[in-house]
Amino acid sequence: MFVIFTLQGARYAFDLARIAAVAEPLRCWPIPGAPACYRGAVNFHGSIIAVIDLAHFMDVSVCCVPEKMIVLSSETSSLAFLVESVLRIAPDQEATLLDPPQSQFTAATLMLTDGTAALLDIDAMVSVAEKLIAR
After folding, report:
1. N or C: the chain end with fewer CB closer than 10 Å?
2. Model's pTM, two decimal places?
């Protein structure tokens, strides 16, 4: 299953198995010296997680206030991504995987009954995010 969300009107997806929760954005506390894409850190159910503005992280133009926060599973990383909106959950049987366009973070293109979405590679994103914060 996939969680389908938007950034600047474009549709993206994450593998739902890698997601802990979708929540309203929480108040972030600054992370000193963090790159600009890091909005800060939050206490999410007793765990401190870093929050990244996904549009800024992916170099997508930023003009909208993020309405949702997608929290990665603790097995994946202590990260959450701010996104414009979450549209829905798409079941596996509704999605056909197509070859991805050339993009650093796109694992595949999902063909869905209501259009397409870029399936993002969470592992690649976490790797880059960890390198950014370690600088």
Report:
1. C
2. 0.92
